Amino acid sequence: MNDFLPHDHGHSFRFENMPKTEEFLAVSEIFKQLCDQTRIKIFWILCHCEECVINLSSMMGMSSPAVSHHLRQLKTYGLIVSRRDGKEVYYKAADTEQAQLLHKMIEKMVEISCPAAG
Amino acid sequence: MNDFLPHDHGHSFRFENMPKTEEFLAVSEIFKQLCDQTRIKIFWILCHCEECVINLSSMMGMSSPAVSHHLRQLKTYGLIVSRRDGKEVYYKAADTEQAQLLHKMIEKMVEISCPAAG
DNA sequence: ATTATATATGAACAATTATTCACACGTTTA
DNA sequence: TAAACGTGTGAATAATTGTTCATATATAAT
């Protein structure tokens, strides 16, 4: 990759293992789900219980369309799943490696970044 | 927290361990650094070597102001550090728990999300 | 059955924010 | 001086977020 860089700083490392552009894109799309304070909180909640939209709206202090919008995003990327029961639709975190990794990541990052957190 | 939710679905879990709003915000700010394809790639590179702006620009196929902008963001959040040597400024990943966690996270997520990746 | 109500989603819009570029400026070296 | 490298600023474009209004779906009431 850096065979023709403006400057040669002499490192021999040639990035053989560097993910491809599409791979960086795919990963950034997933991380994009955790960019937003609202979405990360919704995801965290859904990692701990199953909830319907109206309750999530209440917890978040937001309108249901806004919450629904975030839920759709999370679902599109396979981080959460839903089921309908009567009038309500229940959401919870998907049982996938990705979702579990993100969940762990969030809790670890809270630990590291917010030392006062108990 | 959910003592007064519109619906009571009967879970006893009361989110005692739920991070506070500020904590979700802080974490989302950090993940925001990995939201962008460009920034995540820059960060990955800087986890593997030290580089100057002009080389990063070349690798990314972007103008130096754009790269500089991303570098400033990453630096503001403590994910990378810089040193000047002559005319050039060299950047590399910070030696912090946060940066290492993010680095591991990126590589793991590439593995999981891009199975074809070698 | 028809109507009304509750829940959730979709679409259009506005407001905010992010990304990138081009240009100008500051710093360092030759 | 002059050239190379990097950064700050402003502008243009694109993306994100949340609101409002309308629509679907399911249950309950009359």
Largest sheet geometry of chain A = 3 strands, antiparallel
What is the structural class of chain A?
mainly alpha
The whole-number mean of residue pLDDT values of chain A reads 90
Overall spatial form of chain A: elongated
Query: What is the name of the CATH class of chain A?
Result: Mainly Alpha
Could you give the distance between the termini of chain A? Answer: 45 Å
**Poorly predicted runs of 5 or more residues of chain A:** none
Total number of beta strands of chain A = 3
Q: State the CATH topology of chain A.
A: Arc Repressor Mutant, subunit A
Summed up, the domain count of chain A is 1
Radius of gyration of chain A: 19 Å
Q: Count of helical segments of chain A? A: 5
